[in-house]
Specification:
Blueprint lengths: L16 H4 L2 H8 L2 H4 L2 H24 L6 E4 L6 E4 L11 H4 L6 H12 L19 H13 L5 H9 L12
Antiparallel strand pairs: 1-2
C-alpha cells in the first residue's frame, strides 16, 4: 500500500461509509462487471469455465497429446505421471548463454540510473532523521537482504568490510 510506512490507518485509504452507501453507483464508476454481477452468477460462470478446462486437460491426457505427461496401463489400471526434465536437458535457453554475466549490484545501479527508483525510498521514521537517504546504503541493504544470511562466513566478511562504504549505519537506515 502506498505510504504505508507513514503510520496511516488502513481505513484512511478506503472510501467513506457515506460514499459506500451508494455502492451501486460506485461499482458502476469502477466499471468492473465482475463486481456488479450477483455472486452466485459469478461463481457459476467461474465453475463452468473450470469444468471446461478440466475436461480439456483430461481429454489431452487420455489422447496422449500432452507431451509432459506419460500414460501407462489400460482401462481401470490406467495411470499417468508428469515427465520431469532429465539432467541432460538444458534448463535455460541457449539464448541466455550468449549474454555476459552481470552482478546484481551492477544491474540495480543500471536500473536506478534509468528509472530513479532509489529516490523513492524514504526513512521509516522520517521525522527523526536529519539526513537524506544514501542510495549506496539502500542498494547495499537490498543486495544484502537477498544474498546474505546472518551467522555465515559471507555475512562475517561483509560485516568486517562494511565500514569502507559507511554501510555500518545500515541497521539504522
Amino acid at each position: 500500500m502506498q505510504h504505508s510506512n507513514e503510520f496511516r490507518r488502513f481505513e484512511d485509504d478506503l472510501i467513506s461509509d457515506v460514499r459506500w452507501a451508494q455502492r451501486d453507483a460506485v461499482l458502476k464508476e469502477v466499471g468492473a462487471p465482475l463486481l456488479q454481477a450477483p455472486i452466485e452468477e459469478t461463481l457459476k460462470t467461474l465453475r463452468d469455465a473450470l469444468e471446461i478446462r478440466f475436461d480439456e486437460v483430461n481429454r489431452r491426457i487420455q489422447e496422449s497429446t500432452n507431451q509432459h505427461i506419460k500414460v501407462s496401463g489400460r482401462a481401470d489400471k490406467r495411470r499417468w505421471k508428469l515427465i520431469y526434465p532429465t539432467a541432460g536437458e538444458p534448463v535455460n535457453s541457449s539464448f541466455y548463454s550468449q549474454l555476459p554475466g552481470v552482478g546484481i549490484a551492477d544491474l540495480l545501479w543500471f536500473v536506478a540510473a534509468k528509472t530513479g527508483f532509489l529516490g523513492s525510498f524514504t526513512h521509516v521514521l522520517d521525522r527523526y532523521v536529519k539526513h537524506a537517504p544514501d542510495p549506496r546504503q539502500i542498494l547495499a541493504c537490498m543486495v544484502s537482504s537477498c544474498t546474505l544470511r546472518p551467522n555465515t562466513d559471507l555475512w562475517d566478511r561483509w560485516a568486517r568490510s562494511a565500514a569502507w562504504t559507511g554501510m555500518i549505519r545500515l541497521p539504522w537506515t
